[in-house]
Design a protein that fits this description.
Blueprint (H helix, E strand, L loop, with lengths): L5 E2 L2 E2 H16 L3 H6 L2 E6 L2 E6 L14 H17 L10 E10 L8 E10 L3 E9 L5 E11 L1
Antiparallel strand pairs: 1-2, 3-4, 4-6, 5-8, 6-7, 7-8
Length: 150
């Protein structure tokens, strides 16, 4: 990897790489993420997209994706967004401290994607908005997630 320029005592490119690795391996690649088959689609600073592939194991009735599976997708995507720009030099730990989900429409018979965006980042508290859409870009859920790093 080419040497990156210093910014505030931190090597920017390496830090971004490390954050993406945390998101990919420890968050979307966690045991729950693996169990549900979550796939990381993209990582940017303060924005992450995570896919939940459709399969019978994540349904409730017929081809409707269970609200718990959607909530797990939302929490995972928001957690990933919070960690996408976390200061890893401080060896932070983290946890979700609030999760509010509004289910807007049934997610039926297809993959869904959570788009999580950090809307407020403080010293230890990060607030994320998450929209979950189906392949037709119809919003099936919207959420506000508060995450604590520290």
């Amino acid at each position: 990897m080419p040497r990156a320029r210093q910014a505030g005592g931190e090597v920017e490119r390496m830090s971004r790489f490390d954050n993406e690795k945390v998101v990919r391996v420890a968050i979307t690649g966690s045991p729950l993420g693996a169990l549900l088959g979550m796939q990381l689609e993209s990582v940017e600073r303060d924005r992450v997209r995570v896919r939940l592939p459709f399969r019978a194991e994540v349904t409730t009735v017929g081809d409707i994706i269970h609200g718990g599976a959607i909530s797990a997708l939302i929490d995972t995507a928001a957690t990933a967004a919070a960690w996408s720009a976390a200061d890893l030099s401080a060896n932070p730990r983290g946890t979700t401290i609030a999760l509010t989900v509004n289910f807007l429409a049934a997610a039926r018979g297809a993959d869904i994607v959570a788009d999580a965006r950090v809307i407020q980042r403080g010293r230890s508290i990060t607030v994320c908005e998450v929209d979950v859409t189906d392949p037709g870009e119809r919003r099936v859920a919207s959420a506000l997630v508060t995450y604590k790093l520290g």
